[in-house]
């Protein structure tokens, strides 16, 4: 997305907020006002498998709860607490059958979620996909991380850090759950960016979204490839496993390690030099914005030329919520901000 389009999108979303805050009187009639009794019984549902993942609890739930508080509605979390795709699909279908005001589906787990999302849309239940798109689904919008770009940023950091350390060549390995569509896209971004450079991807390991498996696979990589210079962990469970294996092997700080986030306390590894970079998804942005668009859609706050939004969807097709890159330069500030946010929320 080019800079001008991003600017226009940002201005457009701010205009939407202004419209809904005054009852959405332009182009469409809205039912009630924000926080009014007419809207108090509205329920929105966030759905994922592994719904109790610590990263979700720490980084996703607060944004969902904040929206519920700010707009005076209910935002409920649903889905199996383990990795169980069949149960996840069944939950999406069951929740949509209850006709909530809107649904968020975490799409990055598997493209098999396309069919249940399409069923929801057929029932005219508004659905936005987050944290990994479903590219063939009829969802109203995707709001979340551009996972290919996350891979690109990981690779760019590996190149820069290898050069900073004076390493003319490098061998790195990737750790991620290979069944997840978003992880595959991130891995492809890494490989495409490193193609033709001095750094070679010499291994890709499946950690099955489990930290203990990531630790086992990392230990095996360190033993099999003694001249390994870097490691990349793409899901929230890969990083802790990588860190555990490096500490066990006495190699903390010796390799260039970049991973995705795993909570505030995990960032201590950046301060300690075990990790050189952590990518943080902007969960607060993606989920609050997704809920705001669902809220606006359900309450008929805006439409194009007065046309029913179901006939002419006004939502942007895709919104990249962006990334925050945590390094030694900014880790103290970020950890302190996260701690203050936790204290303010009482968590």
Explain the overall architecture:
The protein has 347 residues and is of the alpha/beta class. Helix content is 44%, strand content 17%. The chain contains eleven helices and twelve strands. The protein has a six-stranded parallel beta sheet with strand order 2-1-3-4-5-11, with helices on both faces. α2 links the parallel β1 and β2.
| Alpha-carbon distance between the two ends | 36 Å
Q: Whole-number radius of gyration?
A: 21 Å
**What order do the strands of the largest sheet run in, or round the barrel if closed?**
2-1-3-4-5-11
Output the number of helix runs.
Answer: 11
Instruction: Name the average pLDDT.
Output: 90
Provide the CATH superfamily of the largest domain: Response regulator
CATH class of the largest domain: Alpha Beta
Examine the secondary-structure arrangement and name the CATH architecture of the largest domain.
3-Layer(aba) Sandwich
Provide the low-confidence segments as ranges: 1-12, 14-28
Tell me the series of helices and strands, N- to C-terminal.
HEHEHEHEEHEHEHEHEHEHEEH
Please give the structural blueprint.
Layout lengths: L2 H19 L21 E5 L6 H18 L2 E5 L6 H13 L4 E5 L7 H9 L4 E4 L10 E4 L2 H18 L5 E7 L4 H14 L4 E8 L4 H14 L5 E4 L4 H12 L6 E5 L7 H4 L5 E5 L1 H16 L19 E3 L2 E4 L4 H15 L2
Parallel strand pairs: 1-2, 1-3, 3-4, 4-5, 5-11, 6-7, 6-8, 8-9, 9-10
Antiparallel strand pairs: 10-12
């Amino acid at each position: 997305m080019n800079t001008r389009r991003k600017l226009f999108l940002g201005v457009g979303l701010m205009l939407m907020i202004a419209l809904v805050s005054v009852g959405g009187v332009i182009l469409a009639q809205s039912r009630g006002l924000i926080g009014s009794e007419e809207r108090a019984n509205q329920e929105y549902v966030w759905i994922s498998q592994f719904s109790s993942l610590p990263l979700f609890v720490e980084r996703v739930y607060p944004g969902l709860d904040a929206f519920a508080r700010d707009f005076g509605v209910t935002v409920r979390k649903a889905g199996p607490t383990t990795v169980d795709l069949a149960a996840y699909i069944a939950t999406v279908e069951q929740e949509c059958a209850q006709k909530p005001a809107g649904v968020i589906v975490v799409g990055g787990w598997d493209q098999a979620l396309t069919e249940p999302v399409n069923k929801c849309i057929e029932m005219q239940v508004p659905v936005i996909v987050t944290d990994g798109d479903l590219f063939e689904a009829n969802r109203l919008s995707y709001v979340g991380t551009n996972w290919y770009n996350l891979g690109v940023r990981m690779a760019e950091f590996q190149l820069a850090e290898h050069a900073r350390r004076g390493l003319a060549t490098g061998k790195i390995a990737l750790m991620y759950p290979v069944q997840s569509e978003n992880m595959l896209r991130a891995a492809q971004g890494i490989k495409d960016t490193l193609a033709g450079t001095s750094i070679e991807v010499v291994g890709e390991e499946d950690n099955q979204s489990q930290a203990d498996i990531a630790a086992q696979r990392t230990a095996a990589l360190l033993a099999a490839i003694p001249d390994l210079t870097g490691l990349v962990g793409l899901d929230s469970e890969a990083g802790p496993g990588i860190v555990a294996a490096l500490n066990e092997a006495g190699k903390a700080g010796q390799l260039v390690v970049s991973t995705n986030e795993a909570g505030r306390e995990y960032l201590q590894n950046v301060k300690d030099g075990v990790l050189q970079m952590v990518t943080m998804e902007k969960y607060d942005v993606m989920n609050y914005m997704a809920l705001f668009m669902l809220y606006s859609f359900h309450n008929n706050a805006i439409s194009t030329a007065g046309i029913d939004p179901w006939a002419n969807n006004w939502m942007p097709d895709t919104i990249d919520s962006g990334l925050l890159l945590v390094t030694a330069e900014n880790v103290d500030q970020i950890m302190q901000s996260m701690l203050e946010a936790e204290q303010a929320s009482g968590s």
